[in-house]
Sequence to fold (111 residues):
Amino acid sequence: MRLLKVLLGVAAAGAVVVAFRDFRNRRWLGPALPGLAGAEDDLLAEGEEGGEELEEPVLGYDGMDRDTLVAWLDDADLDEETLLRIRRYEVATQNREPVLDQVDDLLAAFG
Fold:
């Protein structure tokens, strides 16, 4: 019985490592909370791309399709910094107009 508990503990630890480790960039994944990443001061114009490889602005972003993402943005109550990260990432990756329109509408509320 003790051996079974040890094996289950090792399996659980392995699952945590696989789920929360970014092996490509050799770092741990952080929670999708505002203010944890570096500030994005500039707003990319459409068609403009950044020189560096961008990471998901929030955990799970790449797993959402366009319609799910637009609905999530409407319900998420995100701060300006997070919206700027999302806009930068969207312009640099998929550049979906409905997503950018939703982000721009939400950013307009900040002034």
